[in-house]
């Protein structure tokens, strides 16, 4: 598969994306040090949807509460195992339908920038799970030690497109012990989750925090994320900042524990809407004739 390498002309930071495998980001390095969790690798992502690097979760991030949803006056019944729908261990649809999707087409490419598009409305199998015709575009740019991921949703029909997608950047600091990693979060609203990982409706304000990871684990949901909010991971002599530039009002923080190297990661997941918003409401929409844009960045 064709791997596109981006280079920052001002620093030793580099990045790689694979358009033919769902436009996934597979590498972010600084002077050769890999800063993205490789987990089970690209092959496992292509064949089984096992996430790694920076995958897009589209058209919904995390899980839905059932195999049906109603949005924009359309009721959809999903079929796990068909049309790109993958179930979680509880049988709930998770991470959308675009894992390793091969339909992305590169439209622009330079040494430090790449744009690829997917005509969602031209694929009947995609429309079967998300019947809102549109073109999805990703532009990734590497400059001044910062990787920026810009996503544009352009409706191509007369129906608005719900915006419930997100990304799952797996960050790691291989030069420092996980217990010594420090995570920093902005002011947020914490969303209580049930045993299935779905919001219960209970919320609590959470002030800005800075804490050593130690042996703690996280799989926590938040909303009321302000544009420009910064989440950070630091350890040793390195710091990674994830900035929710615009369009991401919700987040999931994921930091598993265990001796397996693939679990030594921290994810600050930008989400356009909270988990299960496609069923519950509370999402923005891209209106016909009005493309919607969301962006986040990772600064090394």
Automatic annotation (TrEMBL):
Disordered as annotated region, ranges: 192-216
GO biological process, alphabetically ordered: carbohydrate metabolic process
Organism this protein belongs to: Mycobacterium asiaticum
Signal peptide: none
Protein name: Aldose epimerase
Gene3D superfamilies assigned: 2.70.98.10
Compositional bias annotation for Polar residues: 200-209
GO molecular function, one term: carbohydrate binding
Cross-referenced InterPro entries: Aldose_1/G6P_1-epimerase, Gal_mutarotase_sf_dom, GH-type_carb-bd
């Amino acid at each position: 598969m064709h791997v596109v390498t981006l280079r920052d002309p001002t620093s030793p930071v580099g990045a790689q994306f694979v358009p033919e495998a769902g436009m996934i980001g597979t590498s972010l390095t600084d002077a050769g040090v890999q800063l993205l969790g490789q987990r089970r690798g690209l092959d496992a992502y292509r064949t089984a949807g096992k996430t790694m690097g920076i995958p897009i979760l589209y058209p919904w991030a995390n899980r839905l509460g059932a195999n049906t949803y109603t949005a924009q006056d359309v009721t959809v019944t999903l079929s796990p195992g068909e049309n790109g729908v993958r179930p979680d261990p509880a049988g709930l649809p998770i991470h959308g339908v675009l894992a390793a999707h091969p339909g992305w087409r590169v439209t622009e490419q330079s040494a430090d920038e790449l744009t690829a598009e997917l005509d969602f409305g031209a694929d009947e199998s995609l429309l079967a799970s998300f019947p809102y015709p549109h073109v999805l575009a990703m532009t990734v740019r590497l400059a001044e030690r910062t990787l920026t991921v810009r996503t544009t949703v352009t409706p191509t029909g007369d129906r608005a497109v719900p915006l419930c997608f997100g990304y799952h950047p797996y960050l790691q600091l291989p030069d420092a012990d996980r217990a010594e990693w420090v995570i920093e979060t902005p002011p947020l609203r914490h969303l209580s989750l049930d045993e299935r990982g779905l919001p219960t409706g209970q919320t609590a304000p959470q002030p800005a925090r800075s804490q050593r990871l130690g042996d703690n684990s996280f799989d926590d949901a938040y909303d009321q994320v302000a544009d420009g909010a910064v989440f950070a991971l630091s350890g040793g002599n390195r710091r990674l900042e994830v900035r929710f530039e615009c369009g991401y009002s919700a987040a999931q923080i994921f930091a598993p524990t265990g001796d397996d190297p693939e679990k030594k990661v921290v994810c600050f997941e930008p989400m356009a809407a909270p988990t299960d918003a496609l069923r519950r409401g509370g999402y923005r929409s891209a209106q016909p004739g009005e493309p919607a844009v969301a962006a986040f960045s990772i600064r090394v």
